[in-house]
Every structure is written in structure tokens, then in C-alpha cells.
User: Fold these one by one.
Assistant:
Number 1:
Amino acid sequence: MHRLSSGLLITLLLLVIVASGCGAPRDRTGTTVAGSDAPPGSVPDIVGSYVVNGVDPLGAEYSGVLTITPGGASGEYRFEWIVTGSVQEGHGVLTGNQVEVEWKTIDAQRSQSKGQTHYTITDVGELYGTRTVEGYAGEGREAAFPN
């Protein structure tokens, strides 16, 4: 059996630590997106259905479905989330590989909330980013994966 010198062992451990920090973006829920950020001039079509995982600004985890449809003009989209305990709709505008969405709850049984979501689009059509709720400090995180 070969014995590793302490210098070689330390080098190997450092390589493992550095490699574990590299890779795809990760949201606070631990969900990793598979793709890399899409080049701003070559963004995949985002119209479709997605599975959503997120953490709201208060730290509560949620999941559900997001549907994105074309909006009224080029680069505009309509968003509808059906997530744990809520139905929300929004209007988003695409700029490069970023989508800024203004959203609000639409279900009558819940108190009305509104906020913003800022997504980055990956080269495989995933969305990830931050989510704010008006009246609450901080931001949540959300990732959406195409069905």
C-alpha cells in the first residue's frame, strides 16, 4: 500500500473543496439548475409549463407549477403560478437573459400579496432568481424547471 505524503493529501483536499464550490447556480432551497446562464442574444423560448421550487422572504419553502404564455408584445410574457397555498399571476419583460416580473395573488381566499421576481434564464430554459413580497424585508429564491 502506498502512503500519501501530507503535502499531496492537503493538495487533494483543497482540489476537492474548490471543485465542490464550482458548478451550476444553486438557490437557497438546494435546487441546482443544470444549465449555464444563456447568452443574452441566444435565450431559449420560455413559453411553457414549469415545476417551481422556492423559499419566500420569511424562509418558508414552497413548490408548484408555473405557466408562461406570450404577452401583448414581443419580449412580454404572462406568468401564472399555482404554488403551495396560493394562485398568482404576473406580467414579465425579457431583457437579454433576464426576466423582470411584477406579480400579485389572485385567489379570493387568501390575503392579497404582490411583489417582484427577477429570473435569469439558463441555456436549457430553466429560470432561477430572487422573489420579493411587498411589505416584507429581504428576498426569497425561486427556480423553475421546464416540464
Number 2:
Amino acid sequence: MDHVAIMKKSWKLIPKILNGRKKIESRWGINRCAPWGKVKAGDKIYFKNSGEPVTTVAVVSKIKEFENLNPKKVKEIFEKYGGNDGISINNLKSIVKWAKKKRYCTLIYLKNPKEIKPFNINKEGFGGSCAWISVLDIKAIKL
């Protein structure tokens, strides 16, 4: 399966994926929504900043999923895995506050990241503000 992760440009995470500083893509949610339960080892994740073309691809090496989160569990996840997701955990208190309503977390371990020839995608049918798209083959949405 192929996936598109739409990133917040201001966080500047795609360069960190490419240079190896970001080894884990984390997704947090109030409900079980993509990528929860959809991503498997060996899948490809294509990355794009919001409003820009896809520029990067990486392979999934493993997945960890956490549910029934509370502030204590969120703190434990960030203490154990933080930093490898490319986000500094210097201010753990504010991170836990940000995630206080989150109940689900998916950690996606990345390997073999590489820059690719940029291309756009058709997000029609996935919702204009979706941040994760899963398809059998990227060719189905590649423009």
C-alpha cells in the first residue's frame, strides 16, 4: 500500500526525514483515523508539505500503535520516542498539553528516505483538509 503524509510546512520536517534526523513519523488523533491500522512494514510513504507537490518517499520499517491515551501515557511516549520524530521535546509540558485530548498515536518508523521528482496528487474524495491518504498504488492519485 502507498500513503501520502501531508506535512505542516512551518515545522520543516521533510528535510529532517531526508537527512535522517527524523526517523519516526507520528500521527495523533482523538479517533481511530488514518493512518491507524492502515500502515504496514514495507509500505511506502510519500511526503508533501501542504499546498506543495510530493517531494520525498520513505519505506515503513515498523509500526507502533498506542490507544486509550491520557497525559501520563502521552508523556511516556514522548520521553521514549521523542526526538526521533524530528520534534524537539525540550518543552515536554507544552507537548503534553497539546496532546491532552488525543486518544490514539501511530508511530511509523522510516527507512531509506529519498528525494523524488516532484509530482502533484488528486485529493478529490479524501477531504480537502485530510492530512493522510492511503491508496493501493500512488499512481491512482498521481497527476
Number 3:
Amino acid sequence: MSLIRWDPFRDTVSLRDAMNRLFEESFIRPSTRPTLDTVPAVDVVETKDEVVVKAAVPGIKPEDIDISVTGELLTIKGEFKSETKSDGASIIRQERRFGTFERALSLPTQVVADKAKAEFENGVLTLTLPKAEEVKPKTIKVKAK
């Protein structure tokens, strides 16, 4: 067993480095990582025959959503439109986000995009993407001789 000599300044150096990283990431190099404020939250569920994706897009109209599948990449695009009222009222607080969004997801397997179904109900977009035949599990019967 070896003893490590206590250095009172060792922890302050690491604290200083952490503070430097915090300021660099906040002011010098702002993060471009999307947050749930800018993209819809999604759930992805894989069953034996299909992949089901549910996306929360409250306040958006179904015609303002574009969905595309390229290989194993699913892209959901849309736009939250602003409700502008010109009756002379001034806005006290506006917390809802308006503008476009785009969310790209890697699917766990190949799907048949031509047979996909998209349903929209109560602000939830549900995509049902059937798996490609070549990736579905196949059972092989063993015959005894």
C-alpha cells in the first residue's frame, strides 16, 4: 500500500479547469446540440414485424409535418406557426416556440418506407414502419432422417 501525499492545490487546479471548460462551452463555442425545446421528443419501439415511432408535436397541424425515410434514417420536419394578433395588445410573456424544426433518427433496422403509415392524434404523431422482409427473423424447420 502506498501513501499519496496531500496537496492542497490539486483540487483547485481541477476546479479551475472545470470553470474554464464551462466558460469556453458557454461563450466561446456555443453548443449546437439540439434540445427538447427545439426538437420534438420521440419514442421508438421495435416489434417483430415493425418499428413504431411516436413524436410529440403539440400545436402543429398534420399538413405542416414532412416525413422522409432514407435507408435507416428517419427525418421528421415541421413548423410551429406563430399566432399573430393585431388588435393592439402588447405581449407580456411569450414562452411557446415558433419556427421550424428537424429531427433525424437512426432506425434500428431496414424498413419498407412505401408501406409506412402516419397517424396524428392529440398532438402525437405515430409512425408505423414495417420491417423489410430480408431483416425479419425466419424459422427453419429441422427434419430428421
Number 4:
Amino acid sequence: MKKNWKILRRSHAELLKLARHEAKEDREICGFLIDNGYFLQLQPAKNMSKTEGSFSYCKKEVNELKKSTSKLGIEIVGTFHSHPISEAIPGPNDVKHALDDSLMLIFDCIGKEGKLWYIKDGRSSKRVIELI
């Protein structure tokens, strides 16, 4: 998997703004990272969790996205979510519930940044984001 990934600056800024807004209610945002061959597209998803400071996906929404990306010949390569009150570092549960060999973008609502991680064999390693 690549070490450097490109993300549209505008998409990154919009989702960070949304994450900071939701953090006021201790809610997380979540979504998917889609590799379109040029950059990572950030596809927001509805957070189904009713628990503060957590997230979960709607199975129907995930299945529809899988079908769409398959038809378009592009790939879901990871997920994103926000941390309302902690750094943009994957916690043990983040890593435990991530798909192996996937990316995870975490938005830090306090530090106002997003950090990208590669999850493999129960470990996370930081990746570089280039905002374009």
C-alpha cells in the first residue's frame, strides 16, 4: 500500500469543520476512503451509534457503496472518523475493528487536523497526506 496519499483540501476542510461541529455534542463523524486512482475521495456516512464518542455504520449504506464502487471500478480502501476530545491516533478499538490492510483517517477536533494511518496485523503506522 502506498505511503503517500492525496486528498482534496476542500473535502478535508469540510469534514474537519463538520467533525468539530459534531464534537460539541460529543458525536463522531464517520465515512469511507475511496481510491479513485488519483486521490482519496472522502465519502461521509451516517453515524448510527447512539453512544457518545463512538460510531457505527449502516449495513445497507455500506452494501450500496460497495456495489457503486465496484460498478465504477474504484475501491474502498479504508474509513474515516473523528475524535471529539482526543488526538488523531487510532485507539485499541479503532485498530481492533478496522479491516486488515486498510487505511484509517482520523480527524482531531481539538488539534484541527486529520492524520492518516495504515492498519495491518493489528498495528497502525502513520501515512503522509498531501492536500491538493
